[in-house]
Design a protein that fits this description.
six-stranded mixed beta sheet; 2 domains; mainly beta; Immunoglobulin-like; about 280 residues; five-stranded antiparallel beta sheet
Length: about 280
């Protein structure tokens, strides 16, 4: 009987803890669970480790372009996506993110320049001194969007840490799944930007079905091409010349992609958004 009561008490405490974290770990516990150096040792996976399988992705965007280098003082859009990868499909999602002025896996000061887009996230200044963005409540959307302003010149590498979960909404952690990931952006220098006339470079046709071409007077500057998805994953890469600019995309799924063009020094000349359609209008 005593053992039974003890079990009920533990389950009750666990339920209370889960319900309080439903509004965000920083808001409820005044701490971070992103896995970043200096955060609490309890990460989402400590509790949400059930049969739901999810994977996290971070993308830092300049308008529609995914960036790998940040420009000091510039405002960017940050997307955090929780993808269902196996097991039961989650009914809701939660997350938390922090940015540190340091290389990956190195402790550093956090960057307090966050603001949110939409109504499924909020900014929290926790008692540990750090600023986080996290879910407001269970989010039916698996995408969280926010704005972030890069630090001043000379700050060096910036590291993002995010953790999130997919839950079954049964009011406790049983059956849920979680994941976390990281991203490092290095500071952009003047030599990282190609000084080339690119205003006339275009993708045609766009939307495209099976193939597209790169048109413009400056296409002779292009030496390499990449096609990436919305989170920067490289799906296609090839060398390219002025006389070889008919790109086959018949194997890509319908959707939105980024075409990244490089010069002979492997600097980005331009990034164009490409819409792939499987049927002709």
């Amino acid at each position: 009987m005593v053992k039974y009561l003890y079990t009920l008490i533990l389950l009750g405490l666990a339920s209370i803890l889960f319900m309080s974290n439903r509004g965000g770990r920083a808001a409820a516990g005044q701490t971070g669970s992103t896995g970043a150096p200096g955060d609490d040792a309890t990460v989402c996976q400590s509790c949400h480790n059930g049969p739901i399988s999810v994977a996290m992705k971070i993308a830092v965007l300049d308008n529609v372009d995914t960036v790998k280098l940040y420009k000091p003082g510039k405002e960017y859009t940050v997307h955090v996506k929780i993808n269902h990868t196996g097991g039961t499909a989650p009914t809701a999602h939660g997350f938390q993110i922090v940015a540190l002025k340091a290389p990956l896996q190195t402790n550093g000061h956090d960057i307090k320049t966050w603001s949110v887009i939409g109504n499924n996230a909020k900014v929290v200044n926790a008692i540990n001194g750090r600023q986080y963005v996290e879910h407001n409540d269970r989010s039916t959307s698996s995408l969280f969007q926010m704005k972030w302003i890069a630090p001043a010149a000379g700050s060096g590498p910036v590291s993002f840490y995010t953790a999130g979960n997919g839950v079954n909404s049964n009011s406790n952690t049983s059956g849920d799944g979680s994941s976390r990931t990281t991203l490092q952006l290095n500071e952009q220098s003047a030599t990282d930007i190609a000084d080339l006339p690119v205003s006339q470079i275009k993708i045609f046709p766009n939307p495209a079905n099976d193939k597209f071409s790169i048109l413009g007077l400056e296409t002779n500057q292009i030496k390499r091409i990449e096609i990436r998805d919305l989170f920067g994953k490289k799906l296609y890469e090839d060398s390219i010349s002025y006389n070889k600019n008919n790109i086959d995309i018949s194997n890509l799924n319908e959707g939105v992609y980024f075409v990244v063009l490089f010069d002979e020094n492997q600097r980005v000349i331009k990034t164009n958004k490409l819409v792939k359609r499987n049927t002709r209008a």
